[in-house]
Every structure is written in structure tokens, then in C-alpha cells.
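Whiteboard transcription, Tuesday session. T.W. wrote the C-alpha cells on the left side:
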């Protein structure tokens, strides 16, 4: 699918290059040594998934059905996006910097709020270093103002840099956090035999982006990586033409847009006993002036900003990547 349209100005004026993708989809998990292990289940069907994705909010409602003759209690897990702290030492584009619940995640089961537990780990160079950071008294979710690493003895700086946990800012003589945060919300849920259970999630996405865009400026024929980027979002000739028209109207050599990315993991929907019987996706680009592109078949425009996809007996094999171009406020 290549959905696009052109209208009003500047919805996402505050977005800059962001860390992490908005990850999602319920999956059965078991709490094994070393953390959560995601497993398939042969007894619980995902009868429907109703997913709404925008730059402001992600909402999803699932209907599950236990096909067995016995009640099943399992750990339902919801992985948050991996967040790698940037050079400035803060998590970009997260609603609640410094908080474990940094995407304002909440969930309900059969309409009742559920208190989830949070498993949080910090990785450097792909190795779990949570215990070391806790021993040092370092918060796993530092804010931009945090300077506790700098206060450590200089001899430890090199060790933390080697472990992928720190990065030295030579100009200010500071040691900045550089680890990757992996966070999972999980809770115990009973699926009664022969009965449906509705689980709902709501959270604010981490929106990646940049002030500007290579679309309409970078030649895909000369840049293989950029050509792949366009394929990842199914950018078509129609969207490219819309960008060119905007450049002409702005009398500018550069494309008058800012770039926003949202990614959503759909493939864990294949962990259930059968295909998703009824799948509905609504992508909301936020303003009629924005351009949007994502890969899907059978897309239907249902409002000036919303696009709908419906599938029956659906087994997701790829994840969802959404590109939204917002008109630049400087043009």
C-alpha cells in the first residue's frame, strides 16, 4: 500500500531523531531464568485484533478464545521498544523520560484495569549489565540531567566505555550513559475454557524522525540504502510526485517536510493457535496535509486522515513500518 495526501501545516514540530521503534503485540510468555521467554500456545486463538496507530497514540484490542476443555493461566507479555541512550545522554521521543513506564502503557482485561509487572534490563555491547549498574547505584532510566557516571572514579570510565555502557564527552569532560534499555510489561491472565477474553492496550508511541527528509532529494539509483528505505515503507511514485509538488509550491530545492517513523511488531500475532480470524488496522496520519506510506494490501481511506486495512484468517509475516511526512513549519 502507498497511501498519501497533502494538506495542512506542522503537526509534529517537536520531533527529532528518535531512539527505538514502537514495539507491540501480545504473546504468551513463560518466566524462565534470565528473563521472559516467548512461546507458542496450541490452545488459545486470537479471534480478532483491532489496531489503531497514530503519532499520538497506539490502541489495540484483542479477543482471545481458549479452545481447550480446561482453563489456561499464562503470562501475557508486552515488550516495549528497545531504547538506546543517545550521545546527549537522554532518551529521545519518549513521553516520560526517566520513568520505567516511559510510554505511558496501560492495559485492561475484560474492561477492568490490570496492574502489570515490569522487567527492565540494561545491555551494553549486547550483554546484560543490569547487575553492574545497580551495584554502582546507577538508575536504568537516567534523565538528560543525570551526571552520576561522571562522578565515578576516572579509572572506571574506561571500563564502562569498553563494556558499551558509557561514552565520553571530551568537550565537557562528562561520561554519558550509552546502554540499551529492554523493558517488558507482563501479567498473569486466566483464559477460561470455551470463553472469550478481551485484552486492551493503550500507550504513546516512540516516534522516530528528523527535521527534513531525503525523499525528493536523494537519488535511490545512487544510494542503495536509501532505495531499501523507500521499499521498507512502500513509497510509490504518487508520494514522490506529491513531494515534488510541495517543493515547487514552496519554491525550494529541499523537500518542505519533516520525517516521522512508527514501527509496530505484528509477527508475534503468529504465536497463537490459529490465524487471527478478524484483523483490523487503522493508520491515522494526524493531519490532512501530512503524507503517509506503509506496506499493506487492500487499504481503504475512511476519513481525511485515516486508512483502514481488514484481513480474515490472517497470519502476520512482516512487521508494520509507517512513514509520515509532516509539512515543515519553516516553509
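and on the right, the sequence the group agreed on:
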Amino acid at each position: 500500500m502507498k497511501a498519501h495526501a497533502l494538506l495542512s501545516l506542522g503537526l509534529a514540530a517537536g520531533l527529532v531523531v528518535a531512539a527505538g521503534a514502537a514495539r507491540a503485540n501480545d504473546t504468551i510468555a513463560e518466566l524462565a531464568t534470565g528473563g521472559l521467554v516467548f512461546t507458542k500456545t496450541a490452545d488459545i486463538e486470537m479471534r480478532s485484533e483491532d489496531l489503531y496507530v497514530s503519532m499520538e497514540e497506539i490502541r489495540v484490542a484483542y479477543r482471545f478464545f481458549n479452545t481447550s476443555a480446561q482453563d489456561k493461566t499464562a503470562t501475557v507479555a508486552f515488550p516495549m521498544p528497545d531504547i538506546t541512550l543517545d550521545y546527549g545522554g537522554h532518551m529521545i521521543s519518549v513521553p516520560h523520560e526517566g520513568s520505567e513506564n516511559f510510554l505511558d502503557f496501560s492495559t485492561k482485561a475484560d474492561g477492568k484495569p490490570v496492574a502489570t509487572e515490569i522487567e527492565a534490563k540494561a545491555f551494553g555491547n549486547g550483554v546484560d549489565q543490569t547487575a553492574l549498574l545497580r551495584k554502582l547505584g546507577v538508575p536504568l532510566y537516567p534523565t538528560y540531567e543525570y551526571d552520576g557516571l561522571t562522578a565515578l572514579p576516572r579509572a572506571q570510565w574506561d571500563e564502562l566505555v569498553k563494556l558499551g555502557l558509557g561514552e565520553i564527552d571530551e568537550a565537557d569532560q562528562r561520561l554519558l550513559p550509552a546502554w540499551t534499555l529492554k523493558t517488558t510489561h507482563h501479567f498473569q491472565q486466566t483464559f477460561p475454557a470455551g470463553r472469550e477474553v478481551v485484552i486492551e492496550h493503550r500507550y504513546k508511541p516512540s516516534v522516530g524522525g528528523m527535521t527534513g527528509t531525503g525523499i525528493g532529494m536523494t537519488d535511490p539509483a545512487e544510494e542503495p540504502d536509501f532505495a531499501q528505505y523507500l521499499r521498507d515503507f512502500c513509497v510509490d511514485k504518487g508520494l514522490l510526485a506529491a513531494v515534488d509538488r510541495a517543493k515547487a509550491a514552496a519554491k525550494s530545492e529541499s523537500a518542505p517536510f519533516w520525517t516521522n517513523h512508527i514501527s509496530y511488531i505484528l509477527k508475534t500475532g503468529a504465536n497463537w493457535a490459529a490465524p487471527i480470524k478478524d484483523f483490523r488496522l487503522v493508520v491515522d496520519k494526524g493531519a490532512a496535509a501530512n503524507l503517509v506510506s506503509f506496506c499493506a494490501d487492500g487499504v481503504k481511506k475512511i476519513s481525511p486522515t485515516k486508512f483502514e486495512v481488514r484481513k480474515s484468517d490472517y497470519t502476520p509475516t512482516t512487521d508494520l513500518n509507517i512513514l509520515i511526512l509532516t509539512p515543515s513549519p519553516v516553509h
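Someone added at the bottom: Helices lie at 130-135, 154-162, 224-232, 237-250.
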